[in-house]
Amino acid sequence: MNWIKIDEAAKITGITKRAIRYYEEIGLIHPPERSDGQVRLYTDEDVKQLKRVVDAKEVLGFSLQELQHFLSIKERVLEHKDQYESTKDTTIQQSELEEIAVGLKEQEKMLQQKMEKMKSFQEELKDLIQKVDSLLNV
Amino acid sequence: MNWIKIDEAAKITGITKRAIRYYEEIGLIHPPERSDGQVRLYTDEDVKQLKRVVDAKEVLGFSLQELQHFLSIKERVLEHKDQYESTKDTTIQQSELEEIAVGLKEQEKMLQQKMEKMKSFQEELKDLIQKVDSLLNV
DNA sequence: CTTTACTATGACGCGAACGTCAAAGGTCCC
DNA sequence: GGGACCTTTGACGTTCGCGTCATAGTAAAG
After folding, report:
1. Cβ contact (<8 Å) for B117 and A81?
2. A134 to chain B: nearest residue by CA?
């Protein structure tokens, strides 16, 4: 495995070291491994997750809390699927699954609305660009 | 004209009264008319503008400053177009127009990227919903 | 084993975007 | 015209998302 320290992880992702530690602090990313001396060591996977989280935050405008909520749901669902017949604590109750389904569908609806609004804003932007261009080409 | 006070405007738009006053304070919306006793009176147009501003903020994840910048550019461009042959102070210099064009095109590019990332996130969401549904229909 | 360069943790600071409260004044209805 | 209920301005408080020290420990090179 290729372990890197926080400074390199920061350089790769473009996120500051402080922000990375902060994301860990609020549970947005998994705490990475540590050296014997308590130094954080990141894998490629860790770095990927970091990038995805930041993308989602920037692009979707989700608050970090919302994002964390989504990620924990996702993990639990995937875990549930893998360990289908096990009876671990991580197993999700049927009733809870239904709630999750409702919540996710709600999210998808909101995302859809967001994208539509973005489109109309994009149109407006294009219009404005056209107008500016026509003013320039006289 | 149908004048409404801030409380009704707040109820219509879903924005708090404090936020509306704040938006006015930082120049995000035009100061509305006032009664003799200094009470803010909003028209339908004002309410529309409020909605659009908030939409843009929520959907695009713009900071209020960025948004204000965009709105002021837009207004000045439109004004420029109307008063084409006038020599008012509001007229935009050629050089400035070019800068604006560059800035707007940059914005459009970023918007495009955002929308693409949103799409892929939407796919992920749909996947997850499918998985949950398949877990429910056993 | 020392030096040099990171790293960890804790604490305080900060700007944005409001919330909240107080004091003073405005509106409207009977 | 006198309450009951808004509104305004000002000021301070709060939360989020980090930035920025300060202090102390760690890693790697020579």
Report:
1. no
2. B81
Q: Which two tokens mark A64?
A: 């970090």
B44 membership: H or E segment, kind and range: helix B44-60
Q: Same structural domain for residues B73 and B101?
A: no
Residue A111 lies in a domain: yes
Calculate the angstrom distance between C1' of C27 and CA of B17: 18
**Is B118 in Cβ contact with A59 (below 8 Å)?**
yes
Nearest in space to B111 (alpha carbons), one of B61, B68, B41: B61
Q: How many domains does chain A have?
A: 1
Same domain flag for B87 and B97: no
Could you give the CA distance from residue B70 to residue B8 in angstroms, rounded to a whole number?
Answer: 28
A23-64 pLDDT tens trace: 999 988 999 999 999 999 999 999 999 998 888 887 776 665
The answer to the question of residue A115 being in a domain is yes
